[in-house]
What we know:
Rossmann fold, 19 strands, about 25% strand, globular
Amino acid sequence: MDGKKSINIGLIGQQFMGRAHSNAWTQARHFCSPPLNPVLHTICARNMETLIPFSELWGWQNTCNDYEAMCRSPEIDLVDVTAQNHMHLAMSKAALAAGKAVACEKPLAGKFEDAREMAALARKSDAPTFVWYNYRSCPAVAYARQLVREDAIGTIRHVRGFYLQDWADESVPLLWRFDGDISGSGSHGDLCAHTIDMVRFVTGEEITEINGALFETFIKERAQVTKVSGGGIAANVSGSGDAEMVPVTVDDAVLFLSRLEGGAVCSFEATRMATGRQNYNGLEINGTKGSVRFNFERNNELEYYDATGPRGRQGWRTIMCTHEPDHPYSQFWWPDSHGTGYEHAFINMAADILRVLAGEEPISPMPDFEDAFKTQCVLEAVTQCFNEQRTIKLSEVT
Length: 398
Ligand code: SOE
């Protein structure tokens, strides 16, 4: 072998994110030269019938359906949580109590109180924590951050953040994503959380206040789920024609206005009902010397406007963020313009997690529980702003 130390991963969950993370831990070693070798040691989930074929497909060495036992096992070094949001606290708590590193899916938790407890537990623990805000590790997003840090766009004045999808019409039954007890919120925590994290990451600035907010639930009830298969968002899920209708307890859309600590004004919007937008997670940042804009549907590209030359020759340029060594992570992937996709950000992030665990610098700063709690505070402030119909300062949300 290559003589590197191994690290045994225990993954909880076998759905969409279970697949994304199984792939990330596998490919990180193949492509990104991490300083530790991740071993797919144990996969843990409730449904053993599907878990056995899942583990065989992805090469997990062991299966189990008791996450507490897995967390306690001396053979496990890192617990990776991809279970539904309402389980993030209990699972992270079990892992931290056993002194294990934790990598938890976003958002940190569905409920603000859970997130607050998770941040407190992480503060008291010596174990490292990570939250899978995967879009940070998309090369074009990491390059946007680099441009801002190099002062290529000057002082930031305006930010627009948006995350638009279109998979949630009336035909979609009451998946867990529509059940507030499980998910905590709808497009707010599921989608907008990513964009808030991305804006914080790219600008390097914190959101200081929420000045106005709007939530809407267009479809008030949905059919009880009768069958779920496959690993996508809503693909292969059905509610039978005569299934009982149950109330939806989350938002379908959220919009809010806010300010950044450097004085910029920001708007955010997220919805699962933006017909024609399928994974339009993006931002536009306008500064005094230039602007950047990005959306994930064209994830290899970053648009950049340089306002420092003669006005008559200025214009948006589209940069393919695939060139080594200029673009972060490009050294691990394909030649110029051969492109990367959704899974690569997870792979890049898995490799960065391994770098942090080995005491090395990650390519992009990794969000830990403390950092992800800041994003969660923004989510909570937006909810309070809508409920109380007043400006909420982030300093009020603790
Ligand atoms: C669902 O809308 C979802 O899968 C989110 O949960 C992911 O975090 C996002 O990146 C893609 O869309």
